[in-house]
Structures are given as structure tokens and as C-alpha cells.
Input
Amino acid sequence: MTQYENDIINDKIRKMIKGKTILVTGGTGTVGQALVRKILKMEAGVVRVFSRDEHKQFLMQTDLAKDTDPDQIRFLLGDVRDQERLLRAMEGVDIVFHLAALKHVPACEYNPYEAVKTNVLGTQNVIDCAIKQNVCAVVYASTDKAASPTNTMGASKLLAERLISSANHWKGSHDLKLFSVRFGNILNSRGSVIPLFSRQIINGGPLTVTDGNMTRFFMDVNRAVDLILQSLTIAQGGETFVFKMPVMSIGDMARAVVDLSGKAVEISTIGLRPGEKMYEELMSEEESSRALETDDLFVILPFDSDINKVAGEYPGSKRAACGVFSSADEDILPLDQIKFMLVKSMGDEMLCPLINQE
Output
């Protein structure tokens, strides 16, 4: 994409955000915080940060107080499982970014109904409240684990995607667009491997990897936020936008962190956790049969869409090749590029704590 095209997209995004009242569920998470900061800079009218984590809300509120108009942001305690609270939080809202979810694969595997209550029933609550409060758009943040899921977390996120897509049919006369965005692992997010590796290095090792040959799709948080907002400008309703991402092996990721730390730390293999698989998929073969492709992403269309008629509604798109898009089949990012991506994404100050520990 050229700089000119980027400028046009950013201008469209700014016009859609400026002056609007926006609710971000799960707004204290890694992606949520980055998204909130981005839309504040785009002069949103009011941003409501909705989450159940009072401590992270306090830290975020303290941090934003340095350079944010206090009238521009609200912090609301609540859970997406609680429809009554969510309905109140959504009053007068124009756009909802629904990021709240249970995301840890083993935790969801051992507590499956808890995953259902948050990821599935919570998403249905968001849909119902958005319709009742005449919201204009709902953007649902999903995961590549929703493609051909083998674990509870992925299955619950896939079902939530289907709820979002189907709501476009039964929303009635409401002028509301609902769609999903699907991306992979976010570098240095809470619960990801980077903070874990950092703590293990500080403690003298070893670094524990499930399997060094395991592959995953990765992106940095700013890229994820940019693509979430980009999808807002082209969505028609009911789609799942799947972002293209580089592939890394977990073994190379571990070696990159060790090399950047300058420490002599062993790497130990501990085996797959419950519900994990050796690779991830961006979309299934069935999904690819009704998908379009651009330079940055895939657009999985709703089941009832005529792909030949709607293709022109997505700038620069073409029909996607039919097949499974798996991390096992993609080129793996070389070690030096992984190091570059880590430093670029997190900065030296994120790596220095583990480097300076003696």
C-alpha cells in the first residue's frame, strides 16, 4: 500500500472516529489500551473503557491523566456477562470495539463453560445491547485459533464470530454493522511468551518452550490496532477480516530473546499444553471458498454473500485461493528479523530489565 493510500485510509478513519462516543470492552488489555490511545489521538468525543480489572483501570487512568482531557475518557467497571450493566454502559454509544474475552488456552480447556459465558454469551449480550441502544457499528476482535479450532478457546471465539455475522440478518431496521477481525499472537501481550521468557531469564533459566518447531502467526500491537481501524472503513457487515501476519517458530523466538538478553540461558522443551497444536490457521478451506484477498488481509464473506457481486465493494480485492492457510505452510521469519521485530515492537527499554539483571 502506498503512502498516499495510507493517508486516504487514515483520513477516513479519523472522520469516523472524531467526535464519536466509543465503548471498548476489555479496554485495559494490551490491544485495548493501544486502541484507546489511538482513538483518543483521533479526537474521539468520549471513550468509555469497560473492563472488570479495577487495578489495571487505575494504572491506565493514572497514565492517561498526563496528556488526556479528563472529559474525553471514562472508566467503567463491569463484565460482558452482565447484560444490565453493559446496556447502561452502551447508552449513547456510536461504535463498540468488543475486545473482552477469556484467551488463555489451558484455562479455557479446564474451565470450558467459563469460556462460553464470557466469549459466547458475553458477545451475544454485546449484540443485544448494541441493537437496543442504536449503536452504529460493533467490531469484534477474534483470533486465528477460531479457524478449524481444536480447543475450547478457539471454538468459543468461532461461535462468537458466527453470532456477530448472523446478527446482521436479524437486527431489523437498525442501521448497525457488525463484523469480526481475526489476528494471531500479539508480541509482548499479557500472558504471551515474551514476558514469560523475560521472567525466566531474570531467574536464571531455563526458558521453557512447548516445542521448538511449533509455528505461530505474530504481529505487534500497533499493527493490530491499525488493521482493526482499517477494517472499520471497508466493512459492509457480517464479514470476518483476517490479517496477514509473519510466521515465527517458538524455538527461534526463544533464541532471539536469549540472544538479545546477552545471557547464557538454556532452552528446555516441555511438550504441548492441553488444547494446543503445532501450527495455527488463518482460515479454513471452507472459509477460503468465500473469501477475498487484499495486500493486507483476507475478507471472509457471510454464508449468503454472492462473492462475484460484492467483490468490487472491497478496494484492491481479488478472490482468495482455495485452501487452508496454515502457519505450517508459510515461510518462517529468520532469526535476525525476529530480533529486529522484537526491538522495533517493544523497544530497548522493554528488553533492558532482563539484560541488566545481574
User: Anything to note?
Assistant: The radius of gyration is 20 Å.
